[in-house]
Write a structure and sequence with these properties.
By secondary structure, the chain is α/β, with parallel strands linked by helices. It has helices at 14-22, 39-47, 60-72, 122-128, 145-149, and strands spanning 29-33, 53-56, 78-81, 84-85, 90-95, 105-106, 114-120, 134-138. The longest helix has 13 residues, at 60-72.
């Protein structure tokens, strides 16, 4: 179940469905960057019950929705992290449109739905959570991926 109405005919694309059906991930945690309402985190949590999934989401409204979805789906192995993943520690401007959640992203200029959110680096996320091995990381569907990994050490 999901805590808000989603008007889509499929949650995952055909390619994503096939990828998750066929791929067997090595040991380690999963990191869902830009977790949105938690769809990928829930799917991973249900499939890999012995693993920890770190769901990173910067938008407070979207995080609340994701937490409700995680509770509805009785996931126990998802850790919610409410901040943006960036190349710097501190804070970033973030487009947190409460309706167009899929367009949420780090922005350079303020706009109508821009808020300041805490930010951290991938290395800091890994260190703060004692992560020794990453099985897979799902990047966000919105832009800005290169800045998130620019200063990342190899794991």
């Amino acid at each position: 179940g999901f805590s808000e109405y989603l008007s889509v005919d499929r949650f995952l694309s055909e390619g994503e469905d096939k990828f998750f059906e066929k791929h067997c991930f090595a040991d380690g945690v999963f990191i869902d960057v830009g977790a949105n309402v938690g769809l990928h985190s829930i799917l991973l949590a249900k499939r890999y019950t012995d693993r920890t999934i770190y769901a990173v989401e910067a938008s407070p409204n979207t995080m609340n929705c994701m937490r409700a979805n995680l509770a509805l789906n009785q996931t126990r192995n998802v850790v919610c992290l409410e901040y943006a993943l960036s190349d710097t520690l501190g804070a970033v401007l973030f487009n947190a449109d409460p309706v167009a959640r899929g367009l949420a992203s780090i922005v350079r200029e303020p706009g109508a739905n821009t808020i300041s959110v805490p930010s951290t680096t991938l290395d800091q996320l890994v260190e703060a959570n004692g992560i020794s091995k990453i099985a897979a990381m799902k990047p966000p569907s919105s832009g800005g991926r290169s800045t998130r990994l620019r200063k990342c050490r190899q794991r």
